[in-house]
Amino acid sequence: MARMTFPVNERGPPLVEASRVTVAYEGSKGEQIVALDGIDLKIAAGEFVCLLGPSGSGKTTLLKILGGFQLPSLGGALYRGKQLAAPTSQLVMIFQEPNLFPWLTVERNVAFGPRMSGRYRAGTAARIDDLLMTVGLHEARARYPHQLSGGMRQRTAIARALATEPEALLLDEPFSALDVALRRRMQRFVRSLWETRRTTMVMVTHSIEEALLCAERIVVLGGRPSRIVEDLDASSPALKDRYSPAFADTQRKLEALIDPFEDDIGDAQEPAGAVARAMPR
Ligand SMILES: Nc1ncnc2c1ncn2[C@@H]1O[C@H](COP(=O)(O)OP(=O)(O)O)[C@@H](O)[C@H]1O
Ligand SMILES: [Mg+2]
To answer: Where is the signal peptide (predicted)?
Structure first.
C-alpha cells in the first residue's frame, strides 16, 4: 500500500518520540523474546494516532515506553526532545479497566488530580463542571463508580485524566470491555473530544474499524520481531464514515496487512507445553 503520511515537517516538532526502540523480554525458559525491533516513531502535538496490530505485536509495550512507564532494552523515548526516564503528569495513560477510586463520587474522582497537586483554585470547579458536561456525566456527578455503567466509568476515567490538563492521553484498548453499541458511542465521544480540544491522543487498538473511525493517523505494528509495517494518513473525512467506499477499501488493505501476522503470533502465544503435547512423537 502506498505510504500516505504527511512529511514530518508538516506535523511540527515531535511531542513524544520513540527512537530506535528495541524491547526484549525473557521468556518462560529464559529465552529472549524480541517484542519490538528498532521502532522509530514521532508524534506531534495535536495528533490523533492509533497504534494498530494483532495481539502480541507490542502495542502496549510501545505505549508504555512512549509514556515513560517502561524503559526499552535499547533506544529510548523522548518527550519534547528530552529523554523520558519516568512517567510525567503531561502524558496520562488510560487502561481497559478504568481504575477509579470506589469511595469517591464521579465529581471527586474527576477533581482528584487538581486536589492532590494543590492546584485546586477558584477556576478549577468551573473547569471540572465543564468537563463533566463534556463527558456527559453532569447528572451523574454525585454517583459512585459502582453505580455507573461501563461506558460511564470509562468516561469518568477520561475526564479525570483531562482534569490534570495533560498534553497527551495514551489509551490502551480503552473500549474493548464494552459492548458493540457502547463501544461505537465511545469512539464517537473520543473523536469529538479530540475535534474540540485537540488533545494529543495515542490510542492502542486491534480493531481496524476503530482505528479508521477515530484516528488521523494509523501506525501498524506487525511481524516477528514486531516493527512498524505501515504509517497511514487516516484524516480523510471519507474514512470517518463506515459505509463509504474509501472506508471499505482502506479496511481491506489494512486487513491484508495484518492478516499474514495473525497466525504466526497466535502460535507463538500457545503455552509451550500445549504445542509439545500436540506434536506426534
Ligand atoms: N512482562 C513481560 N514479560 C515477558 N514477555 C512479555 C511481557 N510483556 C509483554 N510480553 C510479550 O511481548 C510481546 C508484546 O506484548 P504486548 O506489548 O503486550 O503486545 P500487545 O499489546 O500488542 O498485545 C508479547 O509476545 C508478550 O507476550
Ligand atoms: Mg496490549
So the answer is: none
Question: In this predicted structure, what is the pLDDT of residue 268?
Answer: 47
> Across the strands, what pairs with 116?
none
**Closest protein CA for atom 2 of ligand 1:** 25
Q: What is the pLDDT of residue 87?
A: 93
Question: What does DSSP assign to residue 56?
Answer: T
Tell me, yes or no, whether 68 and 119 share the same domain.
no
The parent domain of residue 245 ranges over 8-90+169-271
Task: Specify whether 191 is located in the same domain as 155.
Answer: no
Q: Which atom of ligand 1 is nearest to the CA of 204?
A: 21
User: What pLDDT, on the 0 to 100 scale, is given for residue 263?
Assistant: 54
Q: Given ligand 1 and candidates 22, 23, 25, which is best to mutate, with the most ligand atoms within 8 Å of its CB?
A: 25
* Ligand 1 atom closest to residue 54's alpha carbon, by position in its atom list: 22
Average pLDDT on 121-134 reads: 87
In ligand 1, the atom with minimum distance to the C-alpha of 221 is 22
Start-to-end CA span in the chain (Å): 43
Confidence band of 264 (pLDDT split at 50, 70, 90): low
Average pLDDT over residues 111-120: 83
User: Pocket around ligand 1: residues whose beta carbon is below 6 Å from it?
Assistant: 25, 33, 35, 53, 55-61
**pLDDT one-digit tens code per residue, 17-48:** 999 999 999 989 999 999 999 999 999 999 99
Q: How far is the CA of 222 from the centre of ligand 2 (A)?
A: 13
Sign of the CA dihedral with 142 first, then 147, 151, and 156 last: positive
Strands (E) across the chain are located at 14-26, 32-44, 48-52, 74-79, 82-83, 91-94, 168-172, 200-205, 217-222, 227-233
Q: Do 12 and 149 sit in the same domain of this protein?
A: no
